[in-house]
From TrEMBL:
<comment type="similarity">
    <text>Belongs to the enoyl-CoA hydratase/isomerase family.</text>
</comment>
<dbReference type="InterPro" id="IPR045002">
    <property type="entry name" value="Ech1-like"/>
</dbReference>
<dbReference type="InterPro" id="IPR029045">
    <property type="entry name" value="ClpP/crotonase-like_dom_sf"/>
</dbReference>
<keyword id="KW-0276">Fatty acid metabolism</keyword>
<dbReference type="InterPro" id="IPR014748">
    <property type="entry name" value="Enoyl-CoA_hydra_C"/>
</dbReference>
<dbReference type="Pfam" id="PF00378">
    <property type="entry name" value="ECH_1"/>
</dbReference>
<protein>
    <submittedName>
        <fullName>Crotonase/enoyl-CoA hydratase family protein</fullName>
    </submittedName>
</protein>
<comment type="pathway">
    <text>Lipid metabolism; fatty acid beta-oxidation.</text>
</comment>
<dbReference type="GO" id="GO:0006635">
    <property type="term" value="P:fatty acid beta-oxidation"/>
</dbReference>
<dbReference type="InterPro" id="IPR001753">
    <property type="entry name" value="Enoyl-CoA_hydra/iso"/>
</dbReference>
<keyword id="KW-0413">Isomerase</keyword>
<keyword id="KW-0443">Lipid metabolism</keyword>
<dbReference type="GO" id="GO:0016853">
    <property type="term" value="F:isomerase activity"/>
</dbReference>
<dbReference type="InterPro" id="IPR018376">
    <property type="entry name" value="Enoyl-CoA_hyd/isom_CS"/>
</dbReference>
Amino acid sequence: MTDTVLIQRNGPVAEIVLNRPDKRNALSLAMFDALSEAGRTIAADRAIRAVILRAEGPDFCSGIDTAVFTANPDPAALIARLHEVPEGETANPFQKPCTVWQEIDVPVIAALSGAVFGAGLQLALGADIRLAAADARLSVMEITWGLIPDMGIATTLPRLVRADIAKELLFTGRKVAADEAAHIGLVTRLAVDPLAEARALAQDIAGRNPDAIRRDKRLMNDAWLASRTAALRLEAELQAEVIGRPNQVEAVMARMQKRPPRFR
């Protein structure tokens, strides 16, 4: 972990903080590795029940730090990393910082404001829920550098927007205002204070049956593009892992007794 990517804990909620406000939270190669490591740390901690992705300063993330390119004028080293997929993984080192949030089994909420550009947008799309301030501006900006987006967007954007909208965003790199982003599905909804609402939502989720929440996420992720038969089978299999178990019984008893649940 570096001081530009922090993990902060508030009980069962973890906050992953981009901490480079002087650079508008532009992602360096060190931050790529730190975000991936943060995801692995969260995945290994069974006490965490929800995660918030946020940033210090007015901008969530202005994209990749251009020093990544200027410090490596020969693209061969970067190209080599594109093909580095560790054994047992599906993502390379550039994709992992964004895709790891879908690999962990607890909900991830992104609190967005200001610039959400390029790599920053792809990181936000890796979250399950995106709450955006009215001043948020989102852009698939890679085309302005003559590149394609390559940090996992192929696994996230097609689930959120129509194909023609996705293509327009990739072809033009135009900046999308927060209200349009909510309308087309890039963000979940607008919020006057995205971080405050993200924290309230995370605490709400953390107070519910963690066995069910983890399987809710898997159900939506795995069934979204599955066949009808496979989706229905998965739904039944996951319910069988929850129903009648101690945490599910506790949810029922707490509701009947009008008290906060005490989940294991």
